[in-house]
Design a protein that fits this description.
Structural class: mainly beta
Number of strands: 26
Mean pLDDT: 86
Order of helices and strands: HEEEEEEEEEEEEEEEEHEEEEEEEEHEE
Largest sheet: 8 strands, antiparallel
């Protein structure tokens, strides 16, 4: 196995220690749950005998968590719950951190839900329940944080119960799960959506890449939407923020977003769309078109992601189907760092056999975007082959992306980051 790592930074070891947590801790001041960090044992929680306090926690040894032991045997068997008072019509964010240790005999996960009740103390009529916040197993097993944003308490709701339910297969004692930092907190007044990469640039094969942004105000009243461009650290564009006023139910299409919104005829970066969410959502979509007179491409859809979609690990598959031949497909890799601190991020190239070929590291500044053009070439790994894949890791939650480009047409495909499956 060849691991000729490229310019491994001396601070990488320290930077990647934080990847074990992979998330910022919850904001305890806003959390309406009691003892969501399990720093006081299981106080505040209703628990079955299969749940016990454990000294291990997402914040490190001694910080504490709830350990769920054994297979409940019934899908949907409740293990942990807590009731909290809520305000009707208010939006809440649900979040938690879990660790699912690897077991060769059993595989399972944990799900959380919020159930709304009409009376205090989680009594009276049930007014509905939230979607499930699911934690499937990940490899390597590590503390993983997930969340659901803007769960609106129904009209008439006076309380909410947070339910924690494990599920597993295999022998009863072969499964265990750790749950920590459970948070139910009022949602922020403002919401930021992120397009991880956008451009108005010339490509390596003479293509012209151009990003289209579509924004819709579905509300029956005028609203303001702020759009910000985040560029490479050595090409700062922190002042590239524009406030747009939308009439009721208005939709605008910015065919070349960097040029039409920011007056930037050439450049690349991430887009942030911020709006006041109390009156409801805005609708945003993005697409990158490949403009080439002789070889026009079909372009690709770009995701518009909530803040909770930032991640510290990912696996990218489907890089090439081989039809373009050797050297016919190039893969660009990039990342947008929404945090206020610089960090290291690494893209590791794997052969179709799973062999690790090389890793390319990038230092990404706070609020900065960066891209590695032709990742496989930069890694000295030849070209992307059918079955080859890329894994990613960083020191804090970021928005990583890969783009596979057909060198013949200049057409591109955005590759979604997936859960890491590396042992």
């Amino acid at each position: 196995m060849r691991q000729n790592l490229r310019t491994r930074p001396t601070l990488l070891g320290a930077a990647l220690v934080g990847a074990a947590l992979g998330v910022a801790p919850p904001s305890a001041a806003a959390n309406i749950l009691n003892n969501g960090t399990f720093g006081s044992g299981l106080g505040g929680w209703a628990a079955t005998p299969s749940v016990e306090w454990a000294p291990e926690g997402a914040a490190g040894p001694g910080s504490g968590s709830a350990r769920i032991r054994g297979n409940p045997g019934i899908v949907g068997a409740l293990m942990l719950s807590q009731c909290a008072a809520v305000t009707p019509g208010t939006d809440y964010d649900l979040g938690a951190t879990t660790l699912l240790p690897y077991s060769p005999e059993a595989e399972g996960g944990v799900s959380l839900r919020v159930v709304w009740h009409s009376w205090p103390g989680c009594e009276g009529a049930t007014l509905g329940l939230s979607p499930a916040l699911d934690f499937p197993p990940v490899a390597p097993a590590d503390w993983t944080r997930r969340g659901l944003e803007r769960l609106r308490a129904p009209s008439g709701a006076a309380s909410a119960s947070v339910l924690i339910v494990p599920w597993a297969s295999g022998p009863e004692l072969a499964f265990a799960a750790f749950v920590d930092d459970v948070e139910l907190s009022p949602s922020n007044r403002f919401v930021t959506l992120t397009v991880p990469t956008a451009a108005s640039v010339d490509g390596a094969g003479g293509e012209r890449f151009r990003t289209t942004l579509v924004l819709t105000n579905p509300a029956p009243f005028t609203r303001r939407i702020d759009v910000r461009l985040r560029c490479h650290a050595d090409q700062p564009c922190s002042t590239a923020a524009v406030s747009l006023v939308f009439a009721p139910r208005e939709t605008r299409v910015f065919a070349d977003a960097l040029l039409e919104i920011f007056g930037k005829p050439s450049g690349a970066g991430a887009l942030e769309v911020t709006y006041e969410a109390t009156p409801g959502p805005i609708v945003a979509s993005a697409r990158a078109a490949t403009v080439h007179a002789a070889r026009p491409g079909n372009g690709m859809a770009l995701p518009v992601l909530p803040s909770s979609a930032a991640r510290v690990t990912a696996t990218f598959v489907g890089l090439s189907d081989g039809r373009a031949g050797d050297g016919g497909t190039r893969v660009n890799a990039g990342v947008y760092n929404p945090s206020t601190t610089a960090l290291f991020a690494g893209f590791t190239v794997h052969a179709e056999s799973g062999e690790t070929l090389n890793t390319v590291y990038q230092m990404v500044g706070p609020g900065a975007w960066t891209q590695v053009n032709d990742l496989f070439s930069q890694a000295g790994a030849g070209s992307a082959r059918p079955g080859s894949f890329v894994t990613f890791t960083s020191g804090a939650p970021v928005f990583p992306f890969l783009i596979s480009i057909d060198n013949r047409s200049g057409d591109s495909v955005y590759l979604e980051p997936r859960e890491s499956f590396q042992p």
